[in-house]
Amino acid sequence: MTVSQSALAKVHDLYVMQIELWKHLREGNFQKADQRKETQRCLKQFSRLLDQVDWHYMGGEDVLAELKTMRGEVSAQLRNIRRRKTKKK
Question: Is-above-0.90 flag for pTM?
Answer without folding.
Answer: no
